[in-house]
């Protein structure tokens, strides 16, 4: 597990040299990329030393500094609360009608922390190791260790805020296991963990609103970042109620805008989740890192037809007590599962991965579910030409714990399933199937969470930094709160220590240019006057992405997808129909802007996937697998972060590579058997 060098300073792998180049002709090679503030020294001391080395901002100067934070989920809400408490002037933006409607509220299963309350062998280093391994060795070592180190503080912070974590009989906080680990380190509040944590962050932020350090702007969507003399100095936002285009200036901008899973149209994300803020920043110079790394969650309610606009997640925590299976024989797939005898059931995860069983990581559980359904052993109604579903069965758990015991742990999840499907999961096994959930890719940031645009910081799911090619369950909430409460406040101050900065006015040429770009874009959407809605283009894009850049990718499929997306983009800009006007509430206009950005992102995702001729985590290339169908990495070629620079309108993206060098963990092919 650990390196032989106890100081963790000796490299354990060499820098990669890419030989294959499937994406030749689709991109331009760029200069190598190095994190300019990457820490050195023993890994266990790097974050502590960096917090000391970073410069301070005295309280009097903090009152003179303005901070814009876009997004009010766990990362954004926690950052606004912490920065406001420190005395900075914070402007907080969200497109929802309340910060409490941020998508973090939908997280169900729990939050990881290396507390070792179960005395089962957990530690900071084991959480670090599990996270790097779970991400298939495609994350930054220093960032992940910092995350593991900070995790324990998050729990203390949230308990102090009153978050109602589940407790054992003696009053101690309870834990459960999640996929990819063999210890219990996930703290939870039944199936409502995200909601309870968000309420904690929201209350902390509202305290600062009352204190006057935080100003909220709800129903505002960021449509452009303002870059002055190479530095981020504000945003252009649209008031979604009045339609007014507004200019907001600051000394620094923080994006905490979540992930881009809705590029697939059908996903577990909230309907409004989008990539626009991050993509606008990308077009202004912020690198987009590892965009092909998307996570397919294995535990979702299956697609039921072509009428759906989103999918529903069933918490991964259910895999603690539920057993996943399909019939051994195709002839049994249309039977009532209760009528299929035990000897005719294939508990395939337990069979293939005896050490981890139903607790294998999400990418592996998802691919195996796809495999058994592709074999014709899926269950549930026919959707298209095959059945998309496997059973998640609680019969054994109910016999062991009683129905009341299961209800105490999972009642709201079981109730939600029953309301959506009309089936009682206490009596009949649930049906689940993989769906797009989280994205590990995002804007590139350095160790301080600063993007390639100085003064633009990125937190939570909007950045790429902590999860590599696959996120372990219950680590999203951990990263969001770590970034917001503990990491960003300690790194952004090193940048703000150079302030107070020269004030920028709204008539500055760069500000006027950014505002004009937004206004012209809005006018363009309204003037095309074609025949198709933005939703129709989004749905078509989602189909392309799922078929060719979903659970399995291939060279031929990705090339086809790129051609199809380029044709779709041309059709979008010539045949889009946006109803209504710009000076009012106009959801048709909102969707048009988001879909335009999704189309450009989708093309880059396919180019990134085409370039990476290896399988790792959530990125599975058909050309790169072991004899038994497992993901096959090629560290000697691809142990790097792919950071893509905007190539200009009509130009090819530019690829910058940041080598991944490990000093504390030896890179190995993952095995959960």
Automatic annotation (TrEMBL):
Cofactor dependency: FAD
EC number annotated for this UniProt entry: 1.3.5.1
Keywords, comma-separated and alphabetical: Cell membrane, Electron transport, FAD, Flavoprotein, Membrane, Oxidoreductase, Transport
Reaction(s) catalysed (UniProt annotation): a quinone + succinate = fumarate + a quinol
GO-annotated cellular components: plasma membrane
Transmembrane listed as a keyword: no
Domain Fumarate reductase/succinate dehydrogenase flavoprotein-like C-terminal: 538-672
Biological process, per Gene Ontology: anaerobic respiration
Signal peptide: none
Alphabetical list of InterPro entries matching this protein: FAD-dep_OxRdtase_2_FAD-bd (IPR003953), FAD/NAD-bd_sf (IPR036188), Fum_R/Succ_DH_flav-like_C_sf (IPR037099), Fum_Rdtase/Succ_DH_flav-like_C (IPR015939), SdhA/FrdA/AprA (IPR030664), Succ_DH/Fum_Rdt_flav_su (IPR011280), Succ_DH/fumarate_Rdtase_cat_sf (IPR027477)
Active site: 362
Ranges of compositional bias, category Polar residues: 1-20
Pfam families per record: FAD_binding_2, Succ_DH_flav_C
Compartmental location: Cell membrane
Record-stated family: Belongs to the FAD-dependent oxidoreductase 2 family. FRD/SDH subfamily.
Protein name in the entry: succinate dehydrogenase
